[in-house]
Fold these 3 entries.
Entry 1:
Amino acid sequence: MESTTLKAERRTDLGTLQSRRLRETGRLPGIIYGHGKDPEAFSVSAHDVAMELQHGARIVALDLGGASDQYLIKEIQYDHLDRYPIHIDLARIDMNERVQVKVAVELRGTPQGLHEGGILDSLMDSIEIECLASQIPATLHPSVAHLGVGESLLVKDIELPDGVTSISNPDDKVAMVHVLATKAAVEDAETEEDAGPAQPERIGRVAESEEDNKKND
Amino acid sequence: MAMMPKRVKFRKSQRGRIPAKATRGNTVAYGEYGIQALGCKWITARQIEAGRVAATHFLHREGRVYVRIFPHKPISAKPLETRMGKGKGEPAQWVARVREGTMLYEVGGVEEDVARQAMVRVASKMPVRCRFVIRRHGL
């Protein structure tokens, strides 16, 4: 995936307060680490990073202090509303080295089981893969059209591009089609709940509470 | 019946304060869509149940609704026409302490427009402003 070079600046003032002030000016604080070198703190335009992320970038080119290089996006922290990035972690990479990354899984197709009254449950939204840094796929698109009721899509069922290997557990379920509980079963469960106690049981205080009640009487 | 814990260590709790921002439980984790609280509030077990019922009725048992909050906190109240004093009242209801950003409900297995309409109905049952969110795939 092609990416534009982001203009970054070195950060010398570190800490929460300085980072907060940076964010108020529209910049995103970040850190670069890896390859046994010292970590470097930097800041970059938050808008530019948002654009890169929107286009599914996993590797960004950064112009830091006149030297341009490519880095792997290791982690992004979002604000409490999970809306805007507040920090970015970049890792130094060699484009010919193999890296381990999490790649999003987007299911394609309508499972057969949906026509039989089933529901598609997506159990994993990403899997971990190992591949060359230059060959990281943006997303994986396994088809779930063949899944009937009670069937599942496993990690090992996902077709990966050449040179990409999965390091997630191959027997992990990515998606599953199952039947929803029938209306009668739900009503039964609800009536069972209704029969429950009005107040919760007290942990380790049963005897004392009985004594308390006697005293109150 | 409204939700409440099965077992508790203490029957009554002090009022406390709700910390401002949610640092966990603030992303879509189970379904594809969700609603997120935009304020801090106590949400009672009855309100949680009302939201769940509103969503499941609208979806006609299609898809799946996930309730992401649980009322862990007992709220006590004194009986009517009682003089002050004589100790703390008995637990009257249970509430969930919701911070700004907490994911309240999630929906999976339905189209976005259907989920959006269901969540609008849920949001109208909530005592806080809410926003509709879509699960983020990848970074």
Entry 2:
Amino acid sequence: MNPAHPPQVRSLASRILRDLVGVAVLAIASLAVGLLMNRRSPDPLPVVYQTPEQRFDAELTTLVAAPPFKIAPAATVTLDDFRSAVDRKSALILDARPSVFFGNGHVPGALNLARDDFAHDYRQLADPLQAAHDKPIIVYCSGGDCHDSKMVANALLSLGFSNVSVFTGGWDAWSAAGLPASTGSGR
Amino acid sequence: MTLSDNSRRYAVHAVSLAVAAVFIYAGIDKIRDPLQFADSIAAFAILPAVLINLLAMGLPPFEIASGLLLIGPWTRRVGSLAVAVILVVFMIALSSALLRGLTLDCGCFGVGAPSRPRMWLELALDAVLLSGALFVYLRSISRLVFTSR
């Protein structure tokens, strides 16, 4: 600080600098607390981040020994086809969104096979999935840019389900069309 | 002490409490689901994988601690500056994502569906919170510097 500056300006700059040091100390202490909490967590995060796709592939390896996950993408269906399948109950409808979104609202009759908890939900839904093994299965997620439905459909094809398609419009298109919705976990 | 001084003092208390409440709530909400928060950070496509989980672990305690420091009269200065610093970082990250055409859930206040209108709304909320934090910091520091002789 230039000695020509008034004492109040020097004092202000010195205070701000000290406060910034305080913020840095707070940040380091917070990181230490965060690391400690993560270490004690029953489901700790790894140090290096894994994308949802990497975690999903890792989960799938708990269901099948040698996952052949690079297969042709599932077919897609339009809103009209999807609505018809829902009305006539001619397909098993799967919602690939996290359970909290499913609970808030989902397509009537849909079951929740969440991408982010796939292995768990897959085991939970073993009976209805086996019953629908050779029947049409339609998967949806939020709509727009969401990838969860495509990932879940791809995984089901990998696991031997032969007739799996994706409703790309997803929940957004269904609710925007004013179609009926169910709430709750549905389990 | 004049009425105006009293009014300013109450305003500082009120703004501090409001900003603190938002930050404590946001921090607790993020602690509940660190994996989801890490995914939200990754969606910004700014940080390398090695820093994402560290930020997901460290930021929620930082938000809660900053909020708690904002409540105490003697710790308010550091708390408000910490909140201001983190809000500037949030605003840069959100603006950068908006400029790059990304549609994401910023993870600022719990889990939500990716939405650009919501990103704009959260940018506006960050601006309001930043002005509150700066108001508290500048009031606290000016009182300290310009009244202590």
Entry 3:
Amino acid sequence: MTVLQADQVTKQYRLGDVVVNALDSVDFRVESGEFVAIMGPSGSGKSTLLHLLGGLDGASGGEITLADKQLSKLDDNAVTLVRRRNVGFIFQFYNLVPTLTAEENIALPLLIDGRDVKKSQAKIDELLALVSLTDRRSHKPDQLSGGQQQRVAIARALVTDPDIVLADEPTGNLDSKSGKAILELLRHSCDELHHTIVMVTHDAYAASYADRVVFLKDGRLIRQLHRLEAKDGAVMQAIMDVMGHLESEA
Amino acid sequence: MKRKIGYHFSLFTFHGHAMSTRRTATLSSLYALAFRNLWTRKTRTLLTALGIVLGVAVILAINIANSSTLASINTIFDEASGLADLVIVPSSLTGQGFNEAALGRVKSIEGVEAAVPSVSATTLLAQDAKGWSFNFGLGGATGGNSLLLFGIDPEADQKARQYNLIAGRFLKPGERSYSAVFTQDYADEKNIELGDDVDVLLPNGTGTLRAVGIVKKDGPGLLNSGAVAFVPLEVVHELFERGGELDQIDIVATAEASRSTQKLTALREALRDKVGSKFLVNYPAQRGQIVTQQLATYQQGLSFFSMIALFVGGFLIYNAFTMTIVERTQEIGLLRALGVSRRQTLRLVMIEAALLGVIGSFFGVFFGLIMAQGLIALMATITATEIVTISIPAEGLFTALLVGLGVTLISSLLPAWRATRISPLAALRIKGREDPSGAPRKLGFVAGAEFVIVGMLFVYAVPLRDAVVFQVGSFAVFVMLLGATLMVPLSLDFMEKFVRPVISRLFGREGIIGAGNIQRSRGRTSLTVAALMVGVSMVISIGAMSRSFQKDIDAWVDTSVGGDLIVRSPLHMQSEFGSRLASLPGVEAVTPGRYFGVKRASGTSEDLALVFQALDPQTYWDVASFQFSEDRELLPQIKQDFADGGLLVSTTVADYYQLKRGDTFALETRRGVQSFPIAGIVSDFTGQGFVLNGPIEIMRRYFGISDVDRFTLKLAPGTDVNAVKQAIEDQYGRSRNLQVETTESFRARIRELTNRAFGLLDVLASIGVIVAALGVINTLMMNVLERRREIGALRSIGMTRAQIIRMILAEAGAMGAIGAVFGIGFGILLSRVFVEGMKIMTGYRLEFSLPFQSLLLGLAIALIVSQVAALYPAWKGSRVNIVEAIKHE
């Protein structure tokens, strides 16, 4: 089942008199339960694509369909509701609310949606256990390490059982050990909990956890790589080869 | 290393004379940065500058208004005396003249160039008799539309006074005809033309004057606000049966004496010796003493509140400047990384502060001048004084500018120092400033509590000399305000928990986040809460002070302004007329009254100017009463002592001279110094409290006054007040030119004047609230800026714009609620201090009254102000571009 679909999506920015084409006629689909990584050189439009897919920004052309809703036809409030109920976001810099505890940060989307948090307590406890932070539930962000904060962010992204999880460089601000733990968590949530994940990364190692990697260059989707295509299972090497090729053509 | 940094920054070292041209380039680049920073953040600059503008404007406006009022009073008397260096008047100040033989005695004294006599009488144009009304203001009674007949010796007068003749002729030397010279304004108002015969009221009918000349309303034309006619001395003598009497002698000193302060002082002493203690020899402007004295307390109050406005303004400046530093943490960190030293960083910030201070002060002066116009108009109404001189004291202007700049620089010192502590590395990532550890907050709380206690002790426990009461009292209040401010940070945590459930209930889920946010940036939030606290406490304490005053005034009015009707006349009435009034149907009792000025014996000319209210002990108690300081049991004895010639002295006078029942009080009278026993001490707001009440017999025997200026009537129960009023007007109104007013109407007018006077203070209190509102805007704008990424994240996980707005409004609501709680608590404390301070300064026995409405008003103001002030920042927060925000490092 297609969870997310982008058809001929374009995005232009005006910088003074110059028009910049950040994305150019991108077609992109994500099936339920998939883990997709988006890669590309700097300025390729990967973050821009992620923002459009999550309704954080509007496309200049084309259509994005998420949870059977065409985002271009929705007003700001309606898009916000889609984000709230159908999308889970994970950011590079965690973006937790500093005055709330880990548990409260996880419950925040429910709170925003007007739901009775007490009724979802079991779910919250489950997520805390999933991210191994049960004993840290009452800690505030400044009492948690970077890796722990990112795990809280992941739990928050999953609390509404979203149709899709969008992660923007989730390991970008972490050391390799913490990063690995995060990636394993994402992989686990995909394999065991059947979440659908789209992750933007510049890191081949991170991308190697995905089922499929799509490559952008100059705003265009130019290549895809399924993990099954990699020779002898050397997924990371295959990814690096493609990236090296892309960067050398620049 | 400096070469690598670049041209501009390589110029940061100063070595020897050869580098002097480079010093200019460095200085100009720093200035350019400072100016650019202010220009780039226009909204922030405007908001910060507004605090300075308001503070400076209020200080200057009040300074100008006070100064103009006093200057006008002095100008009127000074200009009216023209070239005179000294003026001789009777020391009894009754308005009764003295024998013209005194003129001959002073002419012969060395140093006297000319001795210029004058005598005056108050009358009314016959055409105005019907419309005459008794008017009053804080500066005392005014005559409504009365006309001052100023009798002069036309030949001698030219030596002392200069008239600006516009039409006709002036009085001729030796002229004794009923010729009169009017001022242009008065003539225009009353349609008097040259050659017209003008009827004026006399004690026994009317008299006719011929208008022979018109002068400009300047110099002596300023007397009685221009309602003055100059006539020959003899005309006043004849018309008002004042034969051989003078009211004042203006002394023009010789050129030599005039030029030397020492010689003028010596001349004054010589004149005093010559004329004796029955006369006062004053400088002309001192004639305005009684009015200026009566305004002094009110003006001191205004000055005090202007300083409070500045205190609140200083808050805003400190708050805003702290935020500016936080906002530019990254930029400053970058400069430091490029090689700018800590000293240069400090200089950069202080230059910015100086620029802001200059801009703010400049606009503050501009708005202060505009505000002064409105304030002067209001003061003129309240004080019943015509403001003829707009005095912009150089000292006041300079003070306002200095204060504005000074406060800005002082307020920005700490933020500037903090800027120098910014590490280049940490500053390159914008992070909320670490909250200070608990220790400084605890220290601040303890210090703050001590300040509050010390401030209160100064007001309640330390006996102060009168001369310093105002200054020390003001300082004590400042100390208390500062102390309360220092107590806020530590109390914030507790207060937030207290307030959070309420905010959550009001704002829903967003309220939980919003209310919790005030724990971040504690310093900034504390300052904002403190500013709200000051604003709210000002409103409450001024409300309490006003209410306490008004309650006492109401009680005084209800007690002392007794009876049902008051009968007055522009010209004094014969006391026998009282029996005619008493014979009217429905009239149960009639009591006369008369005011005149008196002077304490053996006092200097700098002594208090007092009002004597003459009352009839036989009839007064049937109509009205007093509020006595003594026990009720003593009342019959007090009344007897009063009837036997004792005085009922006001609490103000009693406090000033340390008097009690049984003491004596000596006055200058026409029969020399007389001591009168004090029968009792009473609350009396007449003449701002500088009043003695005495039997009418004292007035006759010792001051030579036999007429009265009013009768108060008490009617039999059930009598129609208006019917009796009409009967008096029909029977006697025209022939005696009477004005009849119900006491109800008179009381209402007194209350209205009091309301207006205190209304002005309420306006000033609101300045504090406005500045607090600016503080809230500043704080929340800064919060939105600092939390852009967080807001972006909240939007990305599904918070709508409306929810963001509610969250920020909730944060503001929490600040407002906490500010209200602090404000109400401190306001109750401060209101007691204000009332106590007023009691000490004025001598009134004020009973503390804290209206519940003031507390509700304080609460409402804090909540409403915080919400209104938060609207723009909340809207800005809701418009945060999500993508930009989450990319923001």
